[in-house]
Queue: 4 jobs
Job 1
Amino acid sequence: MDKKGRTNRLLSRLAVGLMLAAMALFTGCPNKITVKPVTFEVTFSAGEHGTLKAKAEGIAETETSPITIEQGKIVTFRATPDSGYRVKGWTRDGEAVNGTNDSYSFTVTKGVEVKVGFESNSVPPTPPAGDVGSFEDTGDGFIKISPPAAGITGMNPTYTLPGTADEWKGVFRAGRKVKLSPYKLGKTEVPYKLWKEVYDWAIGTGYQFANAGVKGKDGSGSEEEPVTSVSWRDCIVWCNAYTQKTNNAESECVYRKSKTDTTVLKDATKGSECDAAYADMSKKGFRLPTEAEWEYAARWQGSNTENAVQYGEVWLTKLNSASGAKARWNNAGETNAVAWYWDNSDSKTHPVGEKRSNALGLHDMSGNVWEWCFDWYDANPRVNDAAYTSGGFVVDPQGGAAGVDRVFRGGCWDSLAGGCVVGGRLGGNPGDSGDHLGFRVACRP
């Protein structure tokens, strides 16, 4: 073939190539480019007397280190001490983090090394300085909380809240000095597994409920997800059943018909009877926390001043932040670390205890499900203080003398970040239930 022929053939092939490229362009056939995600190696280990497991999106929980995680994904570590031991402390790349919490979460942005150590329960924890209260993990799924003897001196916020209404300002208001007795609070929201165990026992022992409760959001979740679709009335009756089942007697049941009629409440379908419930706080049975107990537990930081405000001597998390967060609600990294909410929940509930705990070792105080409290709701939390005032303190308040709604706090899986802050207050009819409502239990030490 002569030079001219070879040139014509080359031009012909080029024309065909250009024609095919044009056809691909105009027939909507894109060029597929696969971008490999950026990943990092995360190593982890535990000291003697316990184990450490890690999990992340797309990675099942494992004890095998290291794991490779995509950039921007959240990794969660769960430490499990041996019997008689507790978490002593964590390090991340050699620096102390996370206090003595039993879980730790963060967003992966680089390769890191995480370590956790354990110590014997016989070694007393170092108490915080000053009259800032104290706490103790009692090893039974509860945290014993001892508020400061000098009370909590209220104050109004001087920083930006998610909204301007009073509903964002919590219960520790200026001019209000609240004193709380020691109490115990569940480390997690009540999971469906525990709810169902007590529910089945109760149904066969003379108790009745308005709602059977479901696993997580809609019943399709696991037994470790919080029970939902339970009313306030169901919760107080369930607490009595849990007390009787545990103690094999009714004597320590908290919820009674009235102060004078001490009949134990056992039927959640009797709305008016439940709504008039008297809480005998001298009993050691299980109960809902009061709103002040809930908020104090959600906000306590002791002497730690990070993202906190001083109330008397004790430092409490700012009202505009999720429980356990180190920055306000619109800091996505910190809200993600402690709460399941609209931005990260995939529109569903999640197993309790997966997120980083707060300073007391309590999980999910923000997000996952709203939590019923005992109190009647009023826009002004001080409305009934006269009934609880002694020696200049409002002692163990329980909200309004009467009302329409009962308090729930903390935000849930479909709340925006601002709805999960520790200062937010809402109320609902005690007969209401829904896929966003659950609870955790309290009791006397």
Note: Residues 39-120 form a domain with the Immunoglobulin-like fold (CATH 2.60.40).
Job 2
Amino acid sequence: MVDEPTPTRTGTAAEEPQQPIVAAPAEPTDAAAAQDASPVAAPSDSAATPPASTPSSVAPSPVVRVTTVTERAVVRHGVRTVKDSSLAEGKRVVRTKGVDGVKTLTYQVTTTDGVQTGKTLVKSVVTKQPVTEVVAVGTKKPQANCDPNYSPCVPIASDVDCAGGSGDGPAYVSGTVKVTGNDIYRLDNDNDGYGCD
């Protein structure tokens, strides 16, 4: 039996020993890709994620109302001071008594579910004017040796008579004087409030 010669390699691909074929990973189908792309659901935490609201648990809409409200406010009266030379210095007399006025205020009030949420002034009218108080302050300087019951000055003495009259003094007054207190010298004989007239 004749030995067959060993075939020689020519280096062609057909003659190269075949390598094992490794299958490439299959491309995912659209349905599989969509399934793989969806995020993995995290463990549910009922405290952090509120439950889906159902139509029966939807909160009702708030009830908003707008109304007009009228209020009254006091308008404080002022005080005016005037000087009066017929009053003794420092003496105060109310000539006109002060009276407070009234102001009517109109507001637009907004309430939400019965709770006031807004208040806007839309109108203000003084419906009663205040009356200013007038106070007279005396500026008359006290006169030395003058009796405070008369004006102008009547000297202080044991007796005072009208000049040109039948009185014997020792002191006399010239001209008419007004009795502002007690007629201690009896100068006002006709009791009309004036002496030596």
Note: The helical segments are 30-37.
Job 3
Amino acid sequence: MTKDLTSSPLERQNILNNRYALEKIEEHLGLGGTYYDGELLFTKQQLVEIFGISESTIEKYLASHSDELRANGYTVLRGRKLREFKALTDGNVTDYGTKTTVLGVFTFRATLNLAMVLVESDLARAIRSRILDIVIDAIAERTGGHTKYINQRDCNYVPAAYQEFNYRKTFTDALDHYLDLGNFKYGIYTNRIYQIVFREQAQEYKQILNLSKKDSPRETMYAEVLKAIASLENGLAAEMKTASEKQGRKLTKVEVDTIFSASEDNPYLKPIIEDARVKMASRDLGFRDALHQKLEAYVQSVPESDFDKFLGEASHSLEEQLADPTLLAVFKRLKDR
């Protein structure tokens, strides 16, 4: 998917929230700057020289992208902080004629943010191209080159998958016992579950994620999506059982369809389904470069906490997790319930 960082605040923030990629970008670009209080800082004058632009151009972007640049680290130094910073730079700083009272500075993150929106600079254009390459390399390095199963690096994935497996059995048993329909009912109502949770049938989902015929969609789903599916499966199984016992017979397709339709507006399920849609749509675009068009309205920037969850030190491959005795203890507790 082609990405134009100059026009997409979401794509910009997905990169700027990825501290693992930022570390690689800082190492590769070597823009200079001054370290102060744990941050690499750049003055406006330094960015004028780096990008080959005018001071007024920087001021223009500070006005047009004020909230974004400030959220990503642009700040104004005053008082003690300004004195300490000036001491580190041998006093060689100015800020549009204001020498000693205030100084606008950009963190490295804010500097990248400026490079992503700056259209007047050839260097900024080259940096944007390099950034995209480095981000791809950083994610590949962290995941062993495989984002198909990046969902499984979340420590919550395995318990959620095991839980959903159990509720899936409850759901298919309910279809077996309470619905008067042929065996094709399992595929029909599995797709109905998917459509309620994330508005796609299984085949649509597989196409978006470029999965093969042998790939199981559920093995690529995030823990939050699996929990939403499990909640829906468990609730629908209970509803079918109650309705069937009340009628004293198996239910017709029309009657089960009515139960499914009512579940779409269930106020108890709405928060968990909304959360699952946001997580799936946002993470798949940010990590897998996959856009779920039917969930496009739910796409948000991937938060920094998610990069830690799927790329950080606490994240592990499925094989590593299954070798953890702590996880095995969790399995035992779930099994004994």
Note: Residues 223-247 form the longest helix (25 residues).
Job 4
Amino acid sequence: MGEIRNFKSGNQDEPPPHGVMPRRLAAIIVGDIASYSRLMQVDEEGTHVRVKRIERDLIQPSIVEHHGSLVKTTGDGFIAIFDSPVEAVRCSIVIQQNLVGRNASLPKDTRIEYRIGVNLGDVIVEPDDVYGDGVNIASRIEGIAEPGQVYISGAIYEQIKHKVVCGYESLGDRKVKNITDPVRVYRVLPDADAVGKTRGRRENVLLVLLSITVMMIAAGVLWYLLAQPGRVGQQAAAPAVSPVASPSPEPSPREAAVQTPQPSPSLASSPPPAPVSSPSATPLREPELIAIRGGSFAMGSNDDPTERPVHQVTVKPFSIGKYPVTVQEWNECAAAKECGFAAIGNDDAPVTNVSWTDAQQYVAYLAKATKRAYRLPSEAEWEYAARGGTSTKYWWGDKLQPGMAGCKDCGAAASEQPVKVGSFKPNPFGLHDMGGGVDQWVEDCWHKTYQGAPTDGSAWSGGDCSSHVLRSGSWKNDSRYVRPSNRDGYDTNVRYPTHGFRVALSP
């Protein structure tokens, strides 16, 4: 976390050499409010206050959290730059999804909705602004975007298509103002289900058009036959034949979503999901649990402001998954149509690309199928279990040891995906991957510190629950994230490639 700042480059007291301008390759976000003039005309002061509040509470923090820099605000919009195209698109999705929540209770004609365009380009950077074709293209893409949507250029798409968990709808090459070459444009579909729904709508339209065409042809043939002399009596004597075969039933949105690879980094290049068996053919595999005796411990640390203050917590007895939920376990839920997508990957690998809402779908499915009160662990339960009765920096001691956890600098070979569950030693409670492997959702809403946190081990549900807590760190993080006290928050409904979870159960 850090303060929002306008982008600065180099020593501002020393101008660049004559003829040399500071340049950099950057992912550029341009956002603009749809129908801003109309909103200002209806309620000038109220609209101004609302826009400034959105900038302060949503747009600026989202840019910082995704490691970007705010270049400037423009009254009815903003420009930001990022080193990472992935983070730029993630930030754009988060902004739009949070605006949906803010607008839900408002009349449609009073909602503040942004159009967002994202492009990758070589730009000229000045202390308080940024220039170049890269910015112009981002601005033009934003201009053709629909309110509430994120549109990206082909340059961004090529960088993120295997990295950001969402769908993409190609809008083809677009000729944009003052840009010589056409620009390939894609619409981002952050909800994986939207991919199937979009495809389902297209298939439905095609079916309707096909049916109309067949009916017109059949009507023409029938008219021709009836119009021929001497044919009327023959037609009357002939057996009646339906001129049009009934089209096959249109797929429902859920069926259309199942037909589409889910979740899909790219509609064009993703492999199909791993096959899943029907619930009738495959018995339910309950996650293996470890019973944890209750007790008291010092929760938190002084290593990071979000982990303070250190406070004493008493946890009641509970059980928790020995491993994170696996691809195979998740896909049983998907096969039962209780979880929103079929996961890809090895059956014994932890499931990833899971939002907090997705994780809740799985525990609800498990509870329904087993008649047991499955849930996500509370943040306090997770840390208590991860420490395994220890009070050191890591559960094995105060120094990092190779081969104890799956992280970027934990001594394991670098990988593009998490290894199978249980690949590393268990902690003293017999739990695997309680640090590294995959980030793990817990029940609690995100709070920036522990000030006011419950001390009885229960989940902290008060406050703003648009974000929830993640624990463990992942194979893509460094060893700082493997500490049992490490904590982070992420948007409740957004999927991300390193996010998974494990289940818990009260006695």
Note: The two ends are 38 Å apart (CA to CA).
